[in-house]
Design a protein that fits this description.
This protein is mainly α. 64% of the residues lie in helices and 0% in strands. Helix 1 crosses helix 2 (33-62).
Length: 67
């Protein structure tokens, strides 16, 4: 049995919403919907990575309490 899944998890609805807000805020005039959608998916992936690393950092610091 495989230890790790090779499937990518989708970004949460909240992350997708945040990415859409960011993409619309930085949208250039004359930009097509497809370009904005592509930009949104890239931002969602970046936000997902940032949120994952923040979660990992917070979990690792919780275990370091003591001394």
């Amino acid at each position: 049995m495989a230890k790790y899944s090779k499937q990518q998890q989708k970004a949460s609805v909240e992350t997708q919403g945040d990415a859409l807000k960011m993409a619309k805020a930085t949208q250039k005039s004359g930009q097509s919907k497809e370009q904005t959608k592509s930009n949104t998916s890239g931002k969602a992936g970046g936000l997902k990575t940032v949120n994952r690393s923040k979660r990992a950092d917070s979990l690792s610091t919780q275990g370091c309490k003591g001394n």
